[in-house]
């Protein structure tokens, strides 16, 4: 391995290598980074040539597996890039006139109220701050962006961070209960009858025989499917969508029922809220947390933003998530 000023491992190569590993393939890494596949392959080849070792194997489907050297350099790259980002952000906070930069990742469920409050808190703490919000279809996608240093705040399902406790400050935000959402015009007696398999209830209210399934690796969908198989086994997935917002849109039109997290409720217009009933399913609940790189806790502005976001989530948002007509699902089983 020849070393010299013009022949060395670069941060760009390490970022590309890490992106390929985190994404799982060169194709997915190209979409994430905005680089072409040939460019990524070229940079990986240069890195392997300099190190004198193969780092990844590509199988027939294009997925990558790490070699022993790849395992070593993936851990080393993650550590080096983390330290580099920490140094840049610490420098900006201590020695430059640049303002804080908050890059918040959330799923579409938390559009509106939560994101708007996060932006306001950021500007309250630092009037010159820059605030950016990035969507991800699910918590796994948001965590992936966090690992790739595209975010510094990530509002996600706690289970998506099981292996990340050493790198991030993980702060509880709220408990998010999944609700069975039904059109408001369906009376309670018809709901109870449908849950007992009464065919007349399904004939009178056809929406009870249809539900919305989410695709795009929605983590709660398997549990949702199990629930319908158990409680409404004759219902079918006539509709599909990428987000819970789509599921609620269809249900509010009286076309179906759906499962939806209560965290979406504060972001819905009243014209839609009036068309829905919500029945909480406690055993499908999930813990929502905020993940932030640990080194940012040493910078007062970021620590204050996190603390105020936690207070808002616990004291305000958690209460706003309870609809006026909310009932536990178990009330329908009495």
UniProtKB/TrEMBL annotation:
Keywords: DNA-binding, Transcription, Transcription regulation. Residues 9-67 form the HTH lysR-type domain. Coiled coil: none annotated. Belongs to the LysR transcriptional regulatory family. Transmembrane segments: none annotated. One of its GO terms (molecular function) is DNA binding. It comes from Oceanicola granulosus (strain ATCC BAA-861 / DSM 15982 / KCTC 12143 / HTCC2516). One of its GO terms (cellular component) is protein-DNA complex. It comes from the Bacteria. This is Transcriptional regulator, LysR family protein. InterPro entries: LysR_HTH_N (IPR000847), WH-like_DNA-bd_sf (IPR036388), WH_DNA-bd_sf (IPR036390).
């Amino acid at each position: 391995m020849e070393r010299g000023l013009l022949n060395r491992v670069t941060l760009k190569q390490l970022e590309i290598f890490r992106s390929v590993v985190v994404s799982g393939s060169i194709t997915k890494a190209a979409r994430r980074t905005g680089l072409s596949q040939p460019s990524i392959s070229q940079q990986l080849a240069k890195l392997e040539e300099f190190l004198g070792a193969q780092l990844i194997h590509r199988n027939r489907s294009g997925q990558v597996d790490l070699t022993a050297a790849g395992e070593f350099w993936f851990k080393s790259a993650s550590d080096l890039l983390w330290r580099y980002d920490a140094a840049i952000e610490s420098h900006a906070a201590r020695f430059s006139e640049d303002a804080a930069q908050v890059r918040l990742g959330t799923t579409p469920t938390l559009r509106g109220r939560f994101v708007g409050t996060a932006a306001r808190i950021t500007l309250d703490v630092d009037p010159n701050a820059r605030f950016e919000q990035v969507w991800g279809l699910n918590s796994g996608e948001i965590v992936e962006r966090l690992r790739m240093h595209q975010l510094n705040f990530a509002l996600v399902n706690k289970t998506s961070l099981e292996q990340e406790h050493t790198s991030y400050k993980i702060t509880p935000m709220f408990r998010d209960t999944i609700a069975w959402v039904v059109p408001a015009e369906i009376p309670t007696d018809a709901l109870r009858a449908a849950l007992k398999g009464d065919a007349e209830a399904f004939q009178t209210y056809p929406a009870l025989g249809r539900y919305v399934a989410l695709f795009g690796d929605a983590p709660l969908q398997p549990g949702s499917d199990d629930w319908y198989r158990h409680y409404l086994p004759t219902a079918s997935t006539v509709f599909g969508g990428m987000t819970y917002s789509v599921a609620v849109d269809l249900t509010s039109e009286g076309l179906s029922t759906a499962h939806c997290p209560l965290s979406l409720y504060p972001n819905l217009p009243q014209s839609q809220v009036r068309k829905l009933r919500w029945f909480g399913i406690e055993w499908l609940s999930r813990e929502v947390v905020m993940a932030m790189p640990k080194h940012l806790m040493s910078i007062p502005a970021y620590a204050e933003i996190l603390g105020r976001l936690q207070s808002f989530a616990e004291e305000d948002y958690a209460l706003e998530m309870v609809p006026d007509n909310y009932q536990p699902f178990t009330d329908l089983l009495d």
